[in-house]
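Hi P.,

Sorry for the delay on this. The queue was packed all week, but I finally got your sequence through. Input first:
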Amino acid sequence: MKWDKKEIPQTLVKDIADRYGCDLLTASILARRDIITGEDIRYFLENDPRHLRNPFELPDMADAVERILAAKEEGEKVLIFGDRDVDGITSTVLLYRFLAGLGMNVSWRIPLGDDPYGLSLKAVEDFAKEYGTLIITVDCGISNIAEVARAMELSIDVIITDHHNPQEQVPGAFAIVNPKRADSAYPFRDLCGCGVAYKLVSALRFALKSDVYEQRICLLNTRLANDAYIIEVAKLQNLVVIDTLTETLLPDMVRIAETRFPAFLEGQQIMVWDAPLQRRTLAKIFGNGVEVQMLDIAPEIGREIQQAAGKSLLRVKELSRIARYVDHEQTELDVFISLFTSFVQKREQHFTADDVADLQLVSLGTIADIMPLRDENRLMVRAGIGALEEKPRAGLSDLLFKLGLAGHHLASVDLSWKLCPAINAAGRMGSPDKAIALLLEDDPRQRDALANELIAMNDTRKRQGADAWVIVEKRAAETMSRYDGMLALASGEEIFRGITGIMASRLLDRFKTTAIVVSFGDGVYVGSARSPRGVDLHPLLEQCADLFIDWGGHDYAAGFSLEKAKWPLFLERLKTAIHALAFTPGDHEKNALAIDAELPHSYLTPDLLKLIDRFEPYGEANDTLCFMAKSLRVVDITLVGKVEAKHVKLTLDAGKHKWPALYWSAVDKVRNEFDVGDKVDLVFTVTRNWFNGIETPQIIVSDLHRSEGA
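Then the structure:
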């Protein structure tokens, strides 16, 4: 296997280290992964919740908040409708807990058994019979055009919170909060459904506690520019900049009434930094007769943010951690906006223990739905995992204990391989309500019983998956030639509906190409599709849209359903539709091990775990760090395996520290490619190993060979 250590300019590495205050090894890894802009780097180096994006930047968020607050005020009956997977379950729990905590008349509902995905006509009509007036969807709704229309006919408003790709036509809902809307200006599109639900709750918390909610505030600043002066004003609402005005003026050349400022500032609360200075500057520009009513906010901000007290905006800019990550030249007004935002958040304590508890759910939804671990997803998942370690929510604590994870250092892999599957099993086995009940239950005895049910369902799901895989793999292999090697397709009545997604993911790993798995039901066939990273499924499914009862999903993971009668036409359509994918078989497969850094022996100590933790969470769009080291001596070899010895356990001498290492499926390489006493070069990752409650670092070998000249 080829080892690929990308060449990077040392000047770039030094610049990253100097500018962002990190060590050279961290800087080199960032550079090698092409994480080189301040906007990207800050989410790897910072943990401060101030870096989370403002929920009011999401489309229709203000309308959604106002409608929910009106429902609270009027005592309306509200229904939360979610989905059966981990993302939908956590979204439902998060929003229900919050609204119920406000004393609202709220209930929840999700698809059970063989119910179709998404909001159903039956759910809408059942809710109307109960005199309900507001439905909020979570992790679904963006494709439910007919269902939303029916709700409106029945005088039920619908707020859609979703993160799936919108189709060309969207429902006529009261509000659609989705970062993937075509008109969305939200800076990050890849939130999970629970992430969107959390943003809604964050916006509601802001509305309920902030004295600046819905107020329009103008921040004004003047500055000298050669012989002229620049006046800059930003208009904020809910801490979002909604308008700006900038004028460059020469002293005594124009009256203020002849500028755009009076109309822009009329009726607004105007705040400035250092009012005496601003008044003097305005007098120089417009003459002593001008009078602008302004509030000097600098003293109040200085009391909350002490490092800003008594300093100019230019000086604050030099000290600001947030400013260092801005790639464009920041003006004094930019610094003022950032300061004011931080001031309001700190004064009103916007990020509390409730937020941290909610982020436990967001971390599960993000990882289970395989969302990119970039941007604010990193902050939310990191905070959520930390809270799961320190003080897990009721229900999650029960599962962690039964899965043997309680009291351990947790990483994203623990969630993706153990905790998320246990929750997901409830939905796959047709009983997602059991998982929601567990996460909402207050009685410890009831939680224990529910947790046992989830563990049992997960065991059953594993057995079903193992049995189905034999069928799925064989049938998929037989279809490859039919679709020019570009699609692995398996279908049949023996394939349980609840495992089609798992099977499609396994086919993707097995055949390295787009995969579809379909379960034959009674008159309706339900399928899941998965594609390699970088291959958008939307063009393929769009060409078959007229055949589907329903379809939707993400770029690389989607689902659909169709009537049995349309199955032959679907199979035929796929032969041409598959070519709509921008894909050549094997293109996505990496033929080389991408190395993040070559480590000298002095770096091979247990302290390496600190670097590993810095780049957590790992997963989609952020692979586990991969290192190379040379000339390590093999001091011991042990063959391991449950039934027969297939794997190799090594002890490698790195000088200061001797490393335990595992090399999977490498028994045949012993004595042929390496032996005790050899010096070896290797590519590896680093993990934690727990034994009898003791944590030790260990190496997982990806590839290894004798050192040259050894």
